[in-house]
Design goal:
This protein is of the alpha/beta class. The chain is built from 12 helices and 13 strands. The longest helix is centred in the middle third of the chain and has 20 residues, at about 200-220.
Length: about 375
């Protein structure tokens, strides 16, 4: 069949299986058997894989095969890939909710004094990367789990203190944004499979991150009502969502805290005449954000005068101003600084020198953003 048509093992197995249905042939297993026995001629991709020492039995999932001999570059899916573990995340979530319901403290609505000339505080710990490891010998910087915890908590306290003169009546606390450094336990890689230098065990880091968030949120809730907003991110797309859900479960009995922790990439909220948009910043291009904001949250866009987009991901400061029309004030979009250190990969590639800091922003309900707060490390 291969001699006549050029078909590969998958097509051959499928054809034979459909021709003899009574035999109950498993197509995937039979195709793998055909390849193992060498009953088909190697394709161009097979030969390229051989020249690149890429063996399907090594249990890789995807690979770009670049071949100088043929001048081709091909994305190859390994049909023999076996998932090393199967996790029922719905079951984990159910068990976690059950556990949190036993532990979650019940907190009634606080009676707060009405502030004159009130403001909101946006506290955003961007790209904390709990579990990242950096050493002086490898990247000329030190960073580990203990440093991450210290910077998150102490930095938040410093920013809260700096916001005190502004009569805060609402707090937006932004979580996610690569709070955890890896998403794959066995391979110690990001969600997409990029290897990382790591500190600590993934399950310990998950619990540490949960503790850090719960501590800060509890502290913030004594000042004003808190809206917690989760931004999905590229280092911990899956575990970051589970972490946000775990924190939500813990505070589900607290009437002073609300949550927006679904997995939508861009989140929108409002404070007076302020539109606030939050996203990790690894998705759409920055010049698309004003148009997406006007489309995805048209009611808030229509009802507000000042519009701000807060992005993360690149670990340094950058901001842009847009106009939605010639005579209209548009939207300010900016990237936030990160409190995390420089790891070996970033140092090797020259991504160094950015200010390491935690940032917060003060918004007036009628006058927009009126203050920027920074705590440098």
């Amino acid at each position: 069949m291969r001699e006549d048509t050029g078909h590969g093992s998958d097509t051959i197995a499928q054809t034979i299986s459909s021709k003899y249905p009574e035999d109950g042939i498993n197509v995937h297993t039979f195709a793998r058997y055909i390849r193992k026995k060498g009953w088909v001629r190697p394709s161009i991709v097979d030969e390229s894989m051989h020249r690149n020492n890429l063996n399907p039995s090594d249990n890789w999932k995807l690979s770009w095969v670049k071949d100088k001999v043929t001048g081709t570059s091909t994305l190859v899916v390994n049909p023999d890939y076996k998932h090393t573990e199967s996790v029922d995340y719905e079951q984990i979530r159910t068990e976690m909710i059950s556990e949190m319901k036993k532990l979650s403290p019940k907190v009634d609505k606080y009676k707060r004094k009405k502030n004159k000339d009130s403001h909101c505080l946006v506290l955003d710990i961007a790209d904390l990367h709990i579990g990242k490891l950096a050493t002086k010998d490898g990247s000329n910087d030190n960073y580990n789990v203990d440093i991450a915890i210290d910077r998150a908590i102490k930095g938040s306290i410093q920013l809260i203190d700096k916001s005190e003169p502004y009569n805060i009546d609402k707090i937006f606390f932004i979580i996610g944004n690569d709070v955890l450094h890896i998403d794959n336990a066995k391979t110690r890689t990001t969600t997409s499979g990029t290897p990382q230098d790591t500190d600590g065990m993934w399950y310990d880091n998950f619990k540490i991150a949960r503790g850090v968030y719960c501590h800060i949120i509890s502290m913030l809730s004594t000042i004003a009502d808190v809206e917690v907003i989760h931004c999905p991110s590229n280092h911990d797309y899956m575990t970051g969502f589970m972490l946000a859900d775990a924190v939500h479960c813990y505070f589900h009995n607290n009437k002073n805290i609300t949550f927006n922790v679904d997995n939508n990439h861009r989140k929108y909220t409002r404070y007076g005449k302020n539109m606030l948009m939050f996203s990790h910043g690894d998705g759409c291009k920055i010049d698309q954000i004003p148009y997406l904001s006007a489309h995805e949250s048209s009611q808030i866009w229509y009802e507000t005068k000042y519009r701000y987009g807060y992005l993360h991901h690149i670990h340094h400061k950058d901001y842009f101003k847009f106009r939605s029309g010639k005579d209209y004030i548009g939207m300010t979009v900016e990237y936030l600084r990160s409190p995390s250190g420089t790891d070996r990969w970033h140092a090797d590639n020259g991504y160094t020198g950015a200010k390491v800091a935690l940032e917060a922003f003060i918004h007036h309900p009628e006058n927009g953003q009126v203050c920027r707060l920074t705590h440098n490390f």
